[in-house]
Write a structure and sequence with these properties.
alpha/beta, Rossmann fold, six-stranded mixed β-sheet, four-stranded antiparallel β-sheet, 12 helices, globular
Length: 303
Amino acid sequence: MIVIFCEWFVKIGGLFCHSLLFMPYRNLFLQRFNWQLPNNVMIEIRNIRKSFGEKVVINDVSATMKPGNTNLIIGTSGSGKTVLMKIMIGLMPVSSGEVLYEGKDLTKMNETELKHLRKQIGMLFQGSALFDSKTVEANVMFPLDMFTRMTHTEKLKRVNEVLDRVNLKDANHKFPAEISGGMKKRVALARAIVQNPKYLFCDEPNSGLDPQTSLVIDKLIQELTKEYKITTVINTHDMNTVMESGDYILYMYKGNKQWEGSNKDIIFSKDEKLNSFIFASEFLTKAKEMSMIEARSAKPNAK
């Protein structure tokens, strides 16, 4: 009886920590009671295959993407990475295979289950996809208007919290045309996390941004992912993102899973296709060689 009560208490506590209104105080609560959020909020894809007629665009791809990690899908144009992401969020059906969210197969969910899942997903679109006719505040509040029964005061409080978190305090009444490309990305990121999602999908988050602003967006996504234990999936061509943020990297080549590992593993990879993609220029090839020399020379000193 005591065991059952303890299990029930932990489950209720976990749900409470994921609730929207409790979000600002969650980390303090976890530290006070020495609790950990459940570690099973992950995405697993198994033997995914997708074809259009006789053309196979995804061929038997499997991967596990864990919470608190920035999980990257990389590859050249036409490699299948965009199709794979669309399959993962239910925008495109699979030909065969499974897409598991905490062990539940998205491909077998009914409309009610899909609606519940989608409320737990945040999406950062490539072009930000802000409403030009709405203010920053209204853009960020939009998911709360659509999917919650919060009062306007509660919604406004939540909007201000996430805008502050992405360093856009006092930008509420500006319109998209009045802010920079980097600010638009941060507004879109604030909108993506306003419902406290378990899962965050980012499609080319650095597209159209200068290198410095790209690093800011990368760092912000990485911080939010680790802070709130989100399972983040990023579709990217940006090599800075790969090298700085790639806790897990899935490299797609012509619809196949060519390689998987972390940003630390890439330096030592002997996969020719991966190396020609990541280290395409002579400068990057030399940088890889220098990094390998430094890493190897540091190993004896570490012992």
